[in-house]
Amino acid sequence: MLRPVDQDIWTIEAGLRITGIPITTRMTIVRLSSGGLWVHSPVRLDAEMRQAVEALGGVRSLVAPNAFHHLFLESAAVAWPQAQVYAAAGVSRKQPGVRIHGELTGVPLPQWSADLEQLPVEGMPRFNEVVFLHRSSRTLIVSDLVFNLAGKLPWRTGVFARIAGIHGRLAVSRLFRSFIRDRQAFARSIRAILAWDFDRMIMAHGQIVESGGREALSTAFDKFRWFRRAAGSLGAAGD
């Protein structure tokens, strides 16, 4: 159900099955300075969820943050026809029935620029993840950049997590890493994210990191030798 995270930011978790594997997914809602709501990665809505969101205000923007987090975009657009839809590159081809008002870039839309920063993760042309920073709550909002599948999991989910290399900790999945085509561009994006001022981290799958999010994200990537090399070469180039 609707969970308050901080002032003007909430989440809703819902069940999802990926090739028969149960996993939760998370939608993030931000109340903008304008009073309207920004909805990141819509989940499958039931009447109770929809009513809880609408009690917070009018939905103005729906965001599909990467080329895979779009499954419930059309139903959300039908539920909130007044909302404008913004999506990562590649989503429009997968959702031909949804009117996409704009493609997400590195420049925040005027509707939310007073509240949110955004940055596309480069080097992954088929994934095209865009991450966001809610400035006032110092919260980083991502979708599949990292998972945090800690605690007790259904056995199928636990097997999946172990195979994907994301069991029991904040980690980058093997599947996500397989989409990286330009390691230097990718490392440049991660360095830019780590330069943001954030403490909390909300991801689509797994437990929210309530504090220490910046350090946890840095640790999740620094474990990879190739990332350290790519990030190090960027540092050397900038010296």
Descriptive report:
- The chain has 239 residues and is α/β, with parallel strands linked by helices.
- It has a single domain, classed as 4-Layer Sandwich (Metallo-beta-lactamase, Chain A).
- It has helices at 47-54, 73-79, 91-94, 155-164, 174-178, 183-194, 213-222, 225-238, and strands at 3-6, 9-18, 21-31, 37-40, 59-64, 84-87, 102-103, 116-120, 130-134, 139-141, 147-148, 170-171, 200-202.
- The strands form 3 sheets. A 7-stranded mixed β-sheet has the order 1-2-3-4-5-6-7, sandwiched between helices.
- α6 packs across α8 (225-238).
- The longest helix has 14 residues, at 225-238.
Q: What are the main properties of this structure?
A:
alpha/beta, four-stranded mixed beta sheet, Metallo-beta-lactamase, Chain A, single chain
- What is the makeup of the main sheet? 7 strands, mixed
In terms of DSSP E residues, the strand content is: 25-35%
Distance between the termini: 49 Å
Query: What is CATH's topology name?
Result: Metallo-beta-lactamase, Chain A
Q: Number of folding domains?
A: 1
